[in-house]
Amino acid sequence: MADRAKFQAIKGVRDILPPESALWNRVEQAAREVFGTFGFAEIRLPIFEVTELFARSVGADTDIVKKEMFTFDLHASQDLEVRRDVMIGRRTSGPYDIQDTELQTVHEAEIQVGVFIQIIDNAIREDRVARTSENVRALDGLQTLYKQFSAICESYRSSFPSEDPKWNTEMQTLFEGIASYASKLNFGSLVSLRPEATASVVRAYIEHGMQVQPGNVKLYYMGPMFRRERPQKGRYRQFYQIGAEVLGSSDAPGIDAEVIEMLLAFFERLKLKGAILNINSIGDKNCRPAYVERLRAELQVVREQLGADSQRRIETNPLRVLDSKLESEQAIIEKLPRIAENLCAECRAHYDEVKRQLGLRGITYQENWRLVRGLDYYMRTTFEIIAPGLGSQNAVCGGGRYDGLVELLGGPATTKGIGFAIGTDRLVLSLQESGAGEVASGLDVYLAWFGAVTQPAAVKLARRLRDAGFVVELPAVEMKFGKSLGLADRLKARHAVILGEDELAAGVVAVKRLSDGTQQKLSEPDLFSYLRAARNS
Ligand code: ATP
Ligand code: MG
After folding, report:
1. Nearest CA to ligand 1 atom 25
2. How far, in Å, is the centroid of ligand 2 from the Cα of 393?
3. 227 CB within 6 A, ligand 1
């Protein structure tokens, strides 16, 4: 028997199946509704972007960018290989040797260069390689050299130029020219699957000149993100986020508080219990550098007591030491200087006002001085939401103000931003753990028909029920009574509607409520009102 491979989803990615997918839909629907009432509109973003965008916005020095991104070349890898071969003069049987006067070798090289030109020509025509003036010039150059190459080959076609020094020089120059033009072709930049979406939102904001829109630009998104992390409960390589961003010229603390209010309203709508809001202020470019230096100095003193990661971060990013989860470092970290005591007057006032504004919205929070973001453009407000039932992966949402990001990515310096990203996988997990994840079976009616003559009536009745919004399962072939009703039970239908030849003749159907087995005969209008009433009960 032929060996049939069994395919499995690759490590760290998973299928979301019914009935769990119904919970996902409920979560996403709630986000759309709640965010909509706060004046947010959806932005649908690409799944991949140039790598440089993430390197710049997430930070070239972060784990995400250094180790976790899935990066690839937009260009077909086969084309790249051909170019490499042309540039190093490689053919199937081994490297070219300019000294090699065998006509065989030279003709193989000639063919390879010809094929390469064809590939590039097609790639540009098919838009796999950009039609830039550099690329067009390089291709023209290649074509010219190729013609010369062919002409030389033609002139030597019959005689063997073994002792002709002119042949060698000519070929040498040609190969160098070809390699040089080939290297000038720009095959496009590297791209990465998005590890998060704020970078894309800001890129889109700038690209579409959204700063001219009145008021703040308020956007939300939802979809998959990709990070090459060690898979475990609540941590996947393809995971999902629902996020929102406010971009505009104001950094009023009321915006921060309203974004947090919206987030909590969303969790409330989902009946998520026991979520805890942590907040902090990490200062801005005026006061944070001095604090970071103080922190670094203190860390140097305790250096030997820290683990390898934290030791490295003393140099690269001292703030990140604060979110270390290493047990042995906790007591040391508790004694480090705190940002709250090092904020400048403006940042302190901003933070105080955010807290007052949360208060007037009736929002309770915990201040957590260790809640930091390691990147320069993050400033002032940071927040995180912890949900129960998630073990050590208990952060369902992270967010904060990033007033420097729009400028960093080439947009107006006056645009400020704040946003958050919810880990949908973890949110769903937490809802399931706390019993708020039940989604009732949606099947209103299992329409059991018996006897070939009833089938047309059953088909039409199913359609009328569906048009009225009821969920209907209609057996495609006639089944025995017991089997059919058994299936209705197993599908967790709320009602079996039975249509046999007798019912058809009498213009009624029999309706059986499957929870208690009660049965009655109803006319079609009565059936509709009965089902409607059952839905609302
Ligand atoms: P963590 O500290 O848990 O790794 P993070 O700081 O990397 O989180 P963010 O980049 O702030 O997370 O992303 C926001 C949210 O996205 C997190 O709070 C979490 O709920 C979710 N998230 C991040 N990475 C993953 C992942 N690999 N799998 C599932 N959810 C994730
Ligand atoms: Mg992480």
Report:
1. 235
2. 9
3. yes
Q: Number of H helices and number of E strands within the chain?
A: 19, 18
Q: What is the torsion angle, in degrees rounded to the nearest 10, for the CA atoms of residue 270, residue 367, residue 379 and residue 225?
A: -30
Q: What is the pLDDT of residue 170?
A: 78
CB distance 427 to ligand 1 below 6 Å:
no
CA of 426, closest atom in ligand 1: 20
Nearest CA to ligand 1 atom 28: 235
Select from 69, 232, 238, 241 the residue to mutate for testing ligand 1; criterion: most ligand atoms less than 8 Å from CB.
Answer: 241
Nearest Cα residue to 258 out of 407, 51, 35: 35
Ligand 1 close to Cβ of residue 429 (< 6 A): no
Span from the CA of 469 to the centroid of ligand 2 (angstroms): 43
- The rounded mean pLDDT for the chain is 90
Structure tokens that stand for 140 in this block: 């023209």
Distances from the Cα of 164 to the Cα of 142, 145, 147, 148, 439, angstroms = 25, 21, 21, 18, 85
Burial category of 32 from C-beta neighbours within 10 Å (exposed 0-12, middle 13-18, buried 19 and up): middle
CA distance 358 to 393: 26
Q: Which residue has the CA at smallest separation from atom 23 of ligand 1?
A: 423
Condensed to tens digits (0 to 9), the pLDDT of residues 201-228 reads: 999 999 999 999 999 999 999 999 999 9
What does residue 386 show for φ and ψ, rounded to 5 degrees? Answer: -105, 135
Q: Taking each helix axis from N to C terminus, what angle separates 77-88 and 103-125, rounded to the nearest 10 degrees?
A: 140
Average pLDDT (399-424) is 96
Instruction: Indicate the pLDDT class of residue 288, thresholds 50, 70 and 90.
Output: very high
